[in-house]
Amino acid sequence: MVVCKKILVCLSLLLVCLLAGCGAPLLSDREIVRAVFFEKSASGVRAVMLLEGKNAEKPAPETVLAEGPSPMQALQQAEHRLQGDVFYGLMDLAVFTDAFSCEEIRSAGKELWDTLRPVPRIRTLLLDSEAAPADWKQGTGELYEQITAGSKQAHFSSGLQQLFVQEKEYALPEWQGTGFGFVFLRQGREAVRYEAGLTAQLSAVLHRQSDRLDCRIPEQDLRLRANATVQCDAQPSGGAVLRLTLRDIKLSSGSAAAPEAESRQKLESAVQAAFMRIRADTAADGFDPLRLHSWTFALDGSRPDTAAARLELVLES
């Protein structure tokens, strides 16, 4: 019995050590990183590190800035300015301004993934340079809160892994100050950018980075809010059909007397016009911005012409 008690005591101590991390600094003694922002500077790249506040009564976030030839080198310079050990385990946001190219963002993202090993739920997105704070020291915390609130409203799920799914291209939401736009980045080509609105939100849904449409459609005098899902079917003709289903639809018109059937017809017209614009802007030889190839190849081994894809809209109550 005595031996059993000793074994239990030893196992308990071992468990405590494993959970606490023997020899490792307490989390409260570390520099907890919540987000990192990167922007181009005169000397290369500026890294802006947003840290968890340590003031128990008023834990205002802290901001550390540093510069370097590359995003990771700038981030390392920021680390050197801190007193304690850096902890990235709670980091949930990585942001690049729109001055970075497709290749630069992918390279930096790979280094972040390999070096920091951030948690899988980390959000990765772009920032319109016009929406960047004039003073990063003072404005980073507020920017972080704006982006976090906007992401929840838009239901965006743009993880760091988005950068590596396809070889030549990827797409990310872009914070534009009052809402999210959406950007298709392609190797060796100019990025395709959409301002916040229906086209940007439809792009995110078709790219499986969102499951909601919540916007005004000024050209049709409509206000839309709906949950969205998308599926892809291969066609015998060699094309592909994207089936977009909208559920829990809340649709209102500026004209109070407008019949529901008329509003839904206007909605379908607007969605189809947005899809045609996306297809025309992004379809190019060797590129597959909506990942149609991966969808249809899994179904029947085909690789459809992305320029011939069409959208089928299903409106449920």
| Quaternary organization | single chain
Shape: globular
CATH architecture title of the largest domain: 2-Layer Sandwich
> For the CA atoms, what is the radius of gyration?
24 Å
Question: DSSP helix count?
Answer: 7
- Briefly, what CATH class of the largest domain? Alpha Beta
Query: What percent strand?
Result: 25-35%
**CATH T-level fold name of the largest domain:** Nucleotidyltransferase, domain 5
Mean pLDDT: 83
Poorly predicted ranges: 15-21
Q: Encode the helix/strand succession as letters.
A: HEEEHEEHEHEEEHEEEHHE
By secondary-structure content and strand pairing, the structural class works out as alpha/beta
Number of domains: 2
Features of the shown structure:
Nucleotidyltransferase, domain 5, alpha/beta, 2 domains, four-stranded mixed sheet, nine-stranded mixed sheet
Question: Can you describe this structure?
Answer:
- With 317 residues, this protein is α/β, with parallel strands linked by helices.
- It has two domains: 30-196, Nucleotidyltransferase, domain 5 (2-Layer Sandwich), CATH 3.30.420; 208-317, no CATH class.
- Helix content is 33%, strand content 30%.
- The protein contains seven helices and 13 strands.
- The strands form two sheets. Strands 1, 2, 3, 4, 5, 6, 7, 8 and 9 form a nine-stranded mixed β-sheet that branches. A four-stranded mixed β-sheet has the order 10-11-12-13.
- Strand 1 and strand 2 (44-51) form a beta hairpin.
- Helix 5 (198-206) packs across helix 6 (260-282).
- The model is unreliable at 15-21 (pLDDT under 50).
